[in-house]
Amino acid sequence: MDFSAADFDRLLMFEHARKAAEAQYAVDPLDAENLIKWGGALLELSQFQSVPDAKQMLNDAISKLEEALTINPMKHEALWCLGNANTSQAFLISDADEAKVYFDKATEYFKRAENEDPSNELYRKSLEVAAKAPELHMEIHKHGLGQQTLGGGPSASPNAGTAKKKKKSSEFTYDVCGWIILAFGIVAWVGMAKSLGPPPPPPR
Q: What global pTM score does this model have?
């Protein structure tokens, strides 16, 4: 898989975050915030793996996030990340029935996150997008885009023989990219925002 300079920087950043969380876990295994950071880092790093390795890394992320919930069941950040992890797992599975199990789990986690923090627009938006995810999954795998899009970045279907097919394939790819941005990119944004603390009040 070819990485851009920005991708490589992100890979290094989240690998550093993973190692830091692992070291902190050895000191304090009951730190729920740290487990969420660890799970979030694994969620991000899964983007850079082959499909089998990505599945394993997502399983590891789910394990860490579930562990955080055993410590503090009200951690809506963990619930939201679990929704993303299960959605990502679903997109890596070609069988629609098997994928639906993960989509259903994801929806449940997004609902629980929103219940814990009803004013959070991100959680509400995640729930809206999750409702469309099974349809996207079907189209992605029907057009053979699953491995390309999720295994190594977006690309149009090589077998799209007509302009119409090419257009539809690129639309599906765009939709998936939109999901991936929602599912992965904001994890980093939330993590950085939390580490920087609350924003300053707006000038009067």
A: 0.71
